[in-house]
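Re: that chain you flagged

S.,

Sorry for the slow reply, it's been a week of failed gels. I finally had a moment to sit down with the sequence you sent. For the record, here it is as I used it:
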Amino acid sequence: MIPRHQSILFVVLLLASLVMGVLLWQTLERAHRQLVNGADSTPTQAPAVATTEEATLLVANDSDNSLLPQVHSLPLPADSGSRARAVLGKLLDLYAQPDAAHPVPGGAASVAQVFLLPVPGGSAAPPIGHADAAGPQLAIVNLTGNFVATHPSGIETETLTVLSICGTLHANLPHVTQVRFLVDGEQRATLAGHADLTRTYLAAEANQIADSRP
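Prediction finished late last night. Pasting the structure tokens below so you have them in one place:
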């Protein structure tokens, strides 16, 4: 038989446990409500709207292996890296169209990031958002693995893609004089078996092709 004082102690401990459980549940509920109310009361900031500007794209044409400058109006952010990605996205959107003169699937989503760095041995890099500041820049274009996997194979078509990217960057960010490529953040030997992605490309190479067109 359980002694009377032990029975009383058991009941007291049981009641205390129930009370503590209720208090803990109420505390958690109150904290959750405060979190939700705090999130609801936070003012929503409108996203920054990029200004529509004219951008010059060096568009490839497979019929004569040329790069033809085309001017398009599109929203361009102030930040140089974002601006570079925007113009390349538009260029690759043109290539993804059914009637493209240089058909390449993927579109704008094929450009993951564009990083701008000072050219080794050159002057200091320009401030972010100031594409016209002095100082030659190296653009590192990070393409997606899916874009590379679906790109048509061939020395001419691959070279046109690479040079059109380089020329488009230089046309809109004149201080981008050199371009390197990554695929999913890593170095890759070729674009689709031919165009070398381990080297540094000069923007002048694309300009020579565009300038040579009659």
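What I noticed first: Helices lie at 4-41, 80-95, 145-150, 155-172, 203-211.

Talk soon,
D.
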